[in-house]
Specification:
Amino acid/polyamine transporter I
Length: 602
C-alpha cells in the first residue's frame, strides 16, 4: 500500500459523500429554507450575532473544531494498523460526524443559537437539560486534560521546542495589541508569522545556554505551567491573546497540511505498517484495549466528536448568513477534518513499525515487543533529540512529517527545523484549544453555579471570572498532573463520544419533529446506536480493567468516578429521549409539522 492511493481514494469518497449525502441531509431531512431569517439576522447585535460570509464562517468553524484531536487520535490508533483507523475515519465521518455537526448546528439555530444544554432542556425537558449541562462541564474538563497531555511529551526536556512555543505567547499578544491600536490586520499578521519563523530558526542557538538549561523542563513542571498559563488565557480579554493566537495558528494549520498533501504526492511514501497488527485483540503498549471499542474512542475528532457540539451550539450558529450554509459549514468542515485525520494517520504509518512503537512506548515496554528500530537512530541524530519513549502522538506526527518532507532532495538537511516547526505547530494549536476550552469551561462553571449564587452568572463580574477560571484550571490541571496519556486519552475519548451521543439524541428528536418522513430519523439513530453501545462498553472496560485495577498503570479512583458519573448522565438523557420519542411518535405527523413550522417562524 502507498500513501497516494489512500489520499486519492479518501478525497473521492469524501467529495461524493458531500455532494450526495450532504445534499440529502440539507434538502430532504433538515429542509433548509433560505427564505427564513437565521438567528444572525434576527438577533443581529454587531457583537455575537453577526451575519457572516459562509467561507469566513467555514474558516472559523473549522479552526475551532480541528484542534489536536484529528492529529493525535489517528496516531495513537495506528497501534492497530492502518486499516482500522482509515475505515473508522471515513465511515465515522460520513455516517456519523458530518450528520452530528449539521444537526447540532441546525438544532441550535432553531433555538436562536442557544447552547446544547438549553436546546436539550427545550427538546427533552428540564432533567435532560440539567444532565446535559453537567455532562458538558465534565467533558470540557477532561478534554482540556487530554489535549494538554499531548503537549507535555512533546516539550519534555526539549528547550528548542519550549522556546518556540513559549515565545508565541508574547508574539500573539503583540499582534493583538498592534491590531487593536492600528486596525491593520495584514501588517500584524505578516509580522507575527515572520517572528514565529524566526523563533523556530533561533532554537539551536539557545541550546546549551543558561536560557536553554532553564527551558529544559520535566513533565511535572510542565503540567503545572500549562494550567497556570490557561488561567491567564481564560481571564484576559479575548482580543489580547486568544483571538490573535487563533488567527496565526489558522494560517499555520492550513499551510502545513497543504504542504503535507503536496509532499505525499511528491514522495509517495510506502506504508510499511501492516493493515492490522497483533494488538487488535488488546494488550498493546499504547492502548491496552481491543480494536473495538477503542478505535472509535481513540479517534474522535476526524470521525465524530462531541467537542464539536460546543462549537456548533456556540459561536457558529450566531454567524450563519443563510440556513443553507449549514451544509458547507456543518457537514463540509467535518469532512475536511476527516482528511486532516487521514493525513496524520499516513504520517504515523509511513514510519517503520519498530520506530513507531519505540517513540510511543516507554523503553522498558518496547524491549518486551521484540521489535528493532530502523531509521529512528539516524532521525534522532539529525533532529538532535532522543526520540524514544516520547509518547502522546505529537512527536510521532512530527517525526512522520519530517520523514516525508526530508525525502524531498531540497529539504534533506533540514530535519531538525522541520521537526521543531511541526512540534510548535501542534503545540500552538493545542494551546489554542486550551485557551478556548478553558474559557468555555469558565462560562459553564459560572452558568452552573450561578443557579445557586446569582452574581456568578454575570460573565463581566471580575471576582466571578477569576473564581471560575481558577476552578476550571484546577480541575483539568489535577487530571493532567496525575494521569498518563493512555488513561487520560481514553477518559477523554469516552467522555467526548458520550457528548456526541447526546448531540445525536437531540438531533434525532428535532428530525422527528420536523421531517416529512419519520424514517429520516435513522440518519441520527444508526450512528447513535453504534456510538452509544461503543462508549458504554468502553467506559465499562476502562473502569473494570484499568481505573479500578490496582495492577494497571492507569489505576485511578478519580477517573473511575468520573467515568461512572458520565455514563449515568448519558443513561438519564437516553431514557428522557426515549420517553420524548414515544410521545412524539404518537402525535400525528401533520400536527408535528405544523408546530415545527410555527416554532421556526416565530
Amino acid at each position: 500500500m502507498n500513501a497516494v492511493t489512500i489520499v486519492i481514494g479518501s478525497i473521492c469518497i469524501l467529495m461524493i459523500a458531500y455532494r450526495l449525502y450532504g445534499t440529502f441531509m440539507a434538502v430532504k431531512v433538515l429542509k433548509l429554507n433560505d427564505a427564513q431569517k437565521t438567528p444572525a439576522h434576527e438577533l443581529e447585535d454587531g457583537k455575537d450575532y453577526v451575519p457572516t460570509n459562509r467561507w469566513v464562517t467555514f474558516g472559523h468553524h473549522f479552526a475551532a473544531i480541528a484542534a489536536a484531536g484529528p492529529l493525535v487520535g489517528p496516531i495513537l490508533a495506528a497501534q492497530f494498523g492502518y486499516l482500522p483507523g482509515l475505515l473508522w475515519l471515513l465511515i465515522g465521518a460520513v455516517i456519523g460526524g458530518a450528520v452530528h455537526d449539521a444537526v447540532v448546528l441546525f438544532a441550535s439555530m432553531r433555538q436562536k443559537g442557544q447552547s446544547l444544554s438549553e436546546v436539550a432542556k427545550k427538546e427533552l425537558g428540564p432533567v435532560a437539560g440539567f444532565c446535559t449541562g453537567l455532562a458538558m462541564l465534565f467533558i470540557i474538563t477532561i478534554t482540556m486534560a487530554g489535549l494538554s497531555m499531548v503537549v507535555l511529551h512533546a516539550l519534555e526536556k526539549n528547550p528548542w521546542g519550549t522556546f518556540a512555543v513559549g515565545i508565541t505567547i508574547p508574539i500573539a499578544m503583540g499582534v493583538g495589541i498592534y491590531h487593536k491600536k492600528t486596525g491593520n490586520l495584514k501588517a500584524a499578521s505578516t509580522v507575527g508569522f515572520i517572528l514565529i519563523l524566526i523563533a523556530v530558526f533561533s532554537g539551536p542557538y539557545i541550546q546549551g545556554t543558561a536560557l536553554g538549561d532553564f527551558l529544559t523542563l520535566d513533565i511535572k513542571t510542565l503540567s503545572i505551567i500549562l494550567p497556570v498559563y490557561a488561567f491567564f488565557a481564560a481571564a484576559l480579554p479575548v482580543w489580547l491573546l486568544l483571538a490573535p493566537r487563533d488567527y496565526l495558528s489558522s494560517f499555520m494549520k492550513i499551510g502545513v497540511f497543504i504542504a503535507l498533501i503536496v509532499g505525499v504526492f511528491f514522495v509517495n511514501p510506502a506504508i510499511p505498517f501492516p493493515a492490522v497488527t497483533e494488538f487488535i485483540h488488546g494488550g498493546g503498549p499504547i492502548l491496552a484495549g481491543p480494536v473495538w471499542p477503542f478505535i472509535s474512542i481513540t479517534i474522535a475528532c476526524g470521525a465524530i466528536s462531541g467537542f464539536h457540539a460546543f462549537v456548533g451550539s456556540g459561536t457558529t450558529p450566531k454567524m450563519l448568513d443563510r440556513w443553507s450554509d449549514i451544509k458547507v459549514v456543518g457537514f463540509g468542515a467535518m469532512l475536511v477534518e476527516c482528511l486532516v485525520g487521514i493525513m496524520a494517520l499516513i504520517s504515523a504509518t509511513a514510519l517503520h513499525p519498530g520506530d513507531y512503537f519505540a517513540i510511543n512506548s516507554t523503553p522498558e515496554v518496547f524491549k518486551t515487543l521484540g521489535m528493532n528500530v530502523t531509521a529512528l537512530p539516524q532521525l534522532s541524530q539529525e533532529i538532535g533529540l532522543n526520540l524514544e519513549g516520547r509518547t502522546g502522538g505529537a512527536v510521532t506526527l512530527a517525526v512522520g512529517m519530517t520523514y516525508i518532507f526530508t525525502e524531498i532532495p531540497w529539504f534533506s538537511h533540514l530535519s531538525s527545523y522541520f521537526f521543531q516547526f511541526v512540534i510548535m505547530f501542534e503545540a500552538v494549536f493545542i494551546l489554542t484549544a486550551i485557551d478556548a476550552g478553558t474559557r468555555v469551561s469558565r462560562y459553564l462553571i459560572q452558568d452552573f453555579f450561578g443557579e445557586f449564587y446569582k452574581p456568578l452568572k454575570r460573565v463581566d463580574w471580575l471576582p466571578g471570572s477569576i473564581f471560575a477560571s481558577a476552578l476550571a484550571c484546577f480541575m483539568w490541571g489535577y487530571l493532567l498532573f496525575s494521569g498518563d496519556i493512555g488513561s487520560v486519552w481514553a477518559l477523554f475519548g469516552v467522555s467526548n463520544q458520550l457528548m456526541a451521543s447526546i448531540g445525536l439524541i437531540i438531533g434525532a428528536t428535532v428530525i422527528l419533529r420536523i421531517a416529512d418522513k419519520r424514517s429520516y430519523m435513522l440518519t441520527c439513530l444508526i450512528p447513535l446506536a453504534y456510538l452509544y453501545v461503543t462508549v458504554n462498553y468502553a467506559g465499562y472496560w476502562m473502569v473494570k480493567n484499568v481505573y479500578l485495577n490496582e495492577a494497571a498503570a492507569g489505576y485511578s479512583i478519580l477517573n473511575a468516578t468520573l467515568s461512572i458519573i458520565m455514563l449515568i448522565l448519558g443513561l438519564i438523557i437516553m431514557i428522557a429521549a426515549i420517553q420524548k420519542w414515544t410521545q412524539l411518535w404518537r402525535t400525528p405527523q401533520a400536527e408535528l409539522a405544523a408546530k415545527a413550522n410555527l416554532t421556526q417562524n416565530i
